[in-house]
Amino acid sequence: MNDEKPDMRTLIAEVSLALFEKRGFTETSVQDICDELGVTKGTFYYYFASKEALLMDIHEQYIVTLLEEQGKILADADLTYREKVCAILYMLIRDIEKRGARGRVFFREMRHLNDERKAKIVPLRNQFRLNIEQMVREGVEAGAFRSATNPKLAAFALLGIANWSYQWFHPDGELSDQEVADAFAAMLLEGIEVASRDR
Amino acid sequence: MNDEKPDMRTLIAEVSLALFEKRGFTETSVQDICDELGVTKGTFYYYFASKEALLMDIHEQYIVTLLEEQGKILADADLTYREKVCAILYMLIRDIEKRGARGRVFFREMRHLNDERKAKIVPLRNQFRLNIEQMVREGVEAGAFRSATNPKLAAFALLGIANWSYQWFHPDGELSDQEVADAFAAMLLEGIEVASRDR
Amino acid sequence: MNDEKPDMRTLIAEVSLALFEKRGFTETSVQDICDELGVTKGTFYYYFASKEALLMDIHEQYIVTLLEEQGKILADADLTYREKVCAILYMLIRDIEKRGARGRVFFREMRHLNDERKAKIVPLRNQFRLNIEQMVREGVEAGAFRSATNPKLAAFALLGIANWSYQWFHPDGELSDQEVADAFAAMLLEGIEVASRDR
Amino acid sequence: MNDEKPDMRTLIAEVSLALFEKRGFTETSVQDICDELGVTKGTFYYYFASKEALLMDIHEQYIVTLLEEQGKILADADLTYREKVCAILYMLIRDIEKRGARGRVFFREMRHLNDERKAKIVPLRNQFRLNIEQMVREGVEAGAFRSATNPKLAAFALLGIANWSYQWFHPDGELSDQEVADAFAAMLLEGIEVASRDR
DNA sequence: CATGAATGAGGATTCATTCAT
DNA sequence: AATGAATGAATCCTCATTCAT
To answer: Is the Cβ pair B193, A195 closer than 8 Å?
Structure first.
């Protein structure tokens, strides 16, 4: 009912994304993409100026959507700082199911964008990280997070935990995305060590 | 005194590593490597059966060395579980300085190994992770880590935090490798949240 | 008042001519032409059977017009032979301003016509030269030109002088078209050498 | 006895030159060149960085050789100005036999060099013309050429006459290169018109 | 040990042209 | 009269690899 028109452009983008994820950007030829769709290379170039332009498309869509979702979480006045950390972790982990390929391609293939294109994407990617950093900083000031916390490193830690899961997490495994996100949030917030006074 | 023999094989491997890191495996041609060394392609193929064989070399050296170092830490009876976590994190972060290129190439280019070669590397890489998982499990049993801790996820979190730093950490930045490792260890062990009874 | 109907066919021909001159026939794509006009390729092919057919159009118009103008000069009984030489040179040089693009495209791109088309154009081009040759021959017989003059070579010399100017002459330079034509006529008619008896 | 080694690089350059002349630079594919030689494209690119680099080679060789020969003529103190004009014309016409293809390709395909390469060739080409201009100027000052002569236009006329012959002159025609050159020199020096006092 | 020449398969991209609408 | 989607062949170029010397 909603995708009555298969829309060749979208079709190409989807098939390409899948191939880029599986084999990598450089290892996927335009011919591979066309073979998969049963069209000729002319068709590909009718819709995309170059293979790299298509990669840019994928990158832009990914980071822009991510920033929007993050914005909603951070702006939500009803959430505590703890809940914001949980929400962002959950958003990223859940994303693997919904847009895992996009995420993997985003982080792995960005270097194939030329300088000009990278100059448009990198600031957005950094913004995502800086937004987390800022949130942690505010949480420290508000007394929710330990005063010893380095907001910059905390942001990197959160991103490392979440983004690394792209390499191993399969949504149909034994743990659900919500469970994984919760467990990670607990580690980052409370640590894994038995608190000194509980020993 | 220590590099009396420049040893062409090692030379090729080193130069290749640097190029693979900077440009990527696929984007680096055998010609590029030879140009850098001022030798001809014949020389390259005298020492390595193929470009992929060279990549395998880099992978093997990296993971074998890493496993050895990890083994020393885990076998050290003098270390507490907390100290072991710190030591492993420090080992990985410090590695970025010493062998950063190798690590980045290891994680980024592994997919260019053929199935047979990957079948030799992947178990070693998994072993590294399982060793951490096992250490956490023992720590939980020994009462050093919270009983709620999921050892598998904890291992993934530790690796995510450490390996993600390959993407941003520069040893000559404002924080030293020791400081970064300590801060990460603190987060993972104690969490960033102010403990409930301290609020 | 005179271009009431922009006439797509003429529009296409004009834009194409400009592009062919600037970039060359092969280097100009049908897409380039359409982009310039803001129409689609379908439109182009509605008016012209092929890119080459359009090139033929340009060639025909050029040589036919040129032959007509030449005919008027040669048939003019009021002109001396000297004046006819001057007039033809002036016609060609002045043409660079009015139809320079056409001339350059004519001489430079003729080889892109297929054999059949070339068979229609080449005789016309030769006719233009033979008409000059014939005029010189008559001039010699009439005693206006030196008896030693080889009419064939004289025609080639005149054409060489005039057509080579397409490569360097800019009507807005320091010399006007009339001055250039006059100077060339003087050289060809009187030579540049100080006559032996004047020495 | 002198070309014992067929030298692939020279071979490629020669075959390419012939094809460029016959079909044009753009219309000649690297594949065409290789087919002609029975080698593969890899071989071509082993010897030339690009098709354009090969074109540059042809251009450089042509103009450098031409300038050298011109230099010898102009520096020859034994020659009168008249003889210098004859010699240069003869050199250019004779060249058509020896290096006609090179000349035609030089003038016709120069625009396919990129800006950087053109910036190396154009000054040399201009130098050739300016040398003639300077010679004419000196001839005027020395009283050998009419004082009314515009040296710049005279140089263009000489070049136009000579270079246009590339389009039609075949050394095996009814006139020899020497005869054609002499006839052209006579026209340019003495004119074709019967001198006023001879009428 | 090392070279230099050659291969051949594959890659991204361009483009004139067609055709249903 | 004009559009827009699609074709398919050709083009330049890259590159891992081989091999005689």
So the answer is: no
Which among A135, A137, A193 is the top mutation candidate for probing chain B, defined by the most B β-carbons within 10 Å of its own β-carbon?
A: A193
Residues in chain A: 199
Check: CB of residue A149 under 8 Å from CB of residue B187: yes
Does B144 contact A191 at a Cβ distance shorter than 8 Å? Answer: no
Mutation to test the A interface, candidates B25, B175, B193, B198, most A Cβ within 10 Å: B193
**Other chains touching D, judged by 3 or more CB pairs under 8 Å:** C
Superfamily of structural domain A55-198: Tetracycline Repressor, domain 2 (1.10.357.10)
Residues of chain D with pLDDT under 50: 1-4, 197, 199
Q: Tell me: the pLDDT tens digits for A39-87? A: 999 999 999 999 999 999 999 999 999 999 999 999 999 999 999 999 9
Number of CB atoms found within 10 A of residue A18's CB: 15
What tokens does A35 get? 């073979």
For chain A, give every residue range classified as CATH 1.10.10.60. 1-48
List where CATH 1.10.357.10 sits in chain A: 55-198
CATH 3.20.20.140 fits B52-198, yes or no: no
Q: The domain A1-48 is classified under which CATH number: 3.20.20.450, 1.10.10.60, 1.10.760.10, 2.40.50.630?
A: 1.10.10.60
Residues 6+ apart with CB under 8 A from C145: C81, C136, C139, C154, D192, D193, D194
Q: Which residue ranges in chain C fall short of pLDDT 70?
A: 1-6, 195-199
Name the residue closest to F11, CA to C1'.
D29
Write the pLDDT tens digit of every residue in B98-155. 777 888 889 888 989 999 999 999 999 999 999 999 999 999 999 999 888 999 999 9
The whole model's pTM is what?
0.83
B-proximal residues of A, 39-68, CB under 8 Å? none
- Please report, rounded to whole angstroms, the spatial distance between the CA atom of protein residue C41 and the C1' atom of nucleotide F4: 9
Which residues in chain B are classed under CATH 1.10.357.10?
52-198
Interfacial B residues in 122-181 facing A (CB < 8 Å): 136, 143-146, 148-150, 153-154, 156-157, 159-165, 168, 175, 180
**A/B interface, count of CB pairs below 8 Å:** 118
Closest CA to C85 of C8, C169, C9, C190: C190
Does C192 lie at the interface with D, CB-CB under 8 angstroms? Answer: yes
Ranges of H-type helices in chain D? 8-23, 30-37, 41-47, 51-75, 81-109, 115-141, 151-164, 177-190
Name C193's bridge partners. Answer: D145
Q: Which nucleotide does the CA of B54 lie closest to, via C1'?
A: F16
Rounded percentage of chain B residues whose pLDDT exceeds 90: 57
**pLDDT value for D6:** 67
With CA of A40 and C1' of each nucleotide, the nearest comes out as F7
**Coil, helix or strand at residue B57:** helix
> Rounded to an integer, what distance in angstroms lies between the CA atom of residue D85 and that of residue A122?
66
Q: Cβ contact (<8 Å) for D188 and C159? A: no
Q: Map tokens 């990527």 to a residue.
A: B24
